[in-house]
Amino acid sequence: MNKKYVNGVKELEKKYILQTYKRQEAVFTRAKDKYVWDETGRRYLDFFTGISVCNLGHSPESVVRAIRKQSEKLIHVSNHYYTRLQAELSRMLVEKSFGAGKVFLSNSGAEANECAIKIARKHGNNKGAFEVISFNNSFHGRTMAALSATGQKKFHKYFNPFLKGFRFADFNDIDSVKKLVTPKTCGIIIEPVQGEGGVYAADKKFLQGLRSLCDKHKLLLIFDEIQCGLGRTGKLFAYRYFGVKPDVITLAKSIASGLPLGVTLVNEKYSGVLQYGDHGSTFGGCLVSCAAAIETLSLLDSRKVLANVVKTGRYLESRLSGLKRKYPCIIKEIRGLGLMLGLELNIDGAKIVEECLHKGLIINCTQGKTLRFLPPFTINKKDVDSAVGILDGIFGKINN
Ligand SMILES: Cc1ncc(COP(=O)(O)O)c(C=O)c1O
After folding, report:
1. How far is the CA of 272 from the centre of ligand 1 (A)?
2. Which residue from 196, 243, 286, 306 has the highest number of Cβ atoms inside 10 Å of its Cβ?
3. Mutate to test the pocket of ligand 1, among 106, 227, 289 (most ligand atoms within 8 A of CB)
4. Phi, psi (5° rounding) for residue 93?
5. Of 133-142, 216-225, 301-310, 348-357, which range is least confident?
């Protein structure tokens, strides 16, 4: 690290950017596939992919080509006109998910959830139902409705009043959900695998219970697959892992390999709820992002990619289990699915993340003590060995 250069960037950042992020001590300048380089040319192995965004590795060549081609042709014309790419991408998404239905394109995960919440509210509107059941420990984004749906108090501090009509049940506890269902309920929103909340996967039976409850009471079942979707679990959609079909799926993060795009996928039954004028976005479905997303989805379609998520996910989990056996005082639990794994520690995780960065490995920590691994789907066993070797070295020192 070039201390002088890094300090210069830090000063500039501090002076001109609202101080809402606690950033790691690194200035990154380029990235390719599973590696990121800092300003001195030092290489880091990326097991975080910018919070599960660069899932096919950084800057896949065909995605870069598609971005370049589209940006030279047409960047923006507004949603007042027809453009082929938005429709093409939406067709791909519908065909790969529900088979029939429609899509709203936005710019981010929070926006994708805002749209889903509006669909649930409009669906319930004529019978006076407006309450959405969400879950403790969930995360759905930082805009006000998405934040109101987020079941973590730490994100709620200072921003009262929140949107009315959000109730919180306990994850994986169907009775706690049943208790909250009333004639005022219009939908349920859930992450099939909670990411920000500490990497907790739902039980299949629990999701089946939610499906039955939604069918019985005519509620919209929304799966927020923004972090856990698009291959993270080893299946293209997380719902397929559990075999439980929601009515709405929200996507963002990795859909356009790093360009901003939010997707609200609605099944056929509810695709007529929003009508002209009910929703919109100036940048929603940016054509360059759509071009990137079409290419990203085509790449994801290769069975090899998803098979590698399953294979390397199992290997990473087994290597982390080895670490747990070696350091029972440091490691409490391993959780997650596919290449979305959490390692809960008995000690502060932030220090470990910092140490990893010093040693050339990028990971993250959530909920104070859970190390979160979100590597690209292109990693192999050797990469897992390198990452686990770095962690082993750090835990070994602590253990002494
Ligand atoms: C499950 C989930 N939903 C929603 C969001 C919000 O997405 P964005 O930051 O793109 O608004 C995130 C972001 O981390 C997420 O993990």
Report:
1. 25
2. 286
3. 227
4. -65, -45
5. 301-310
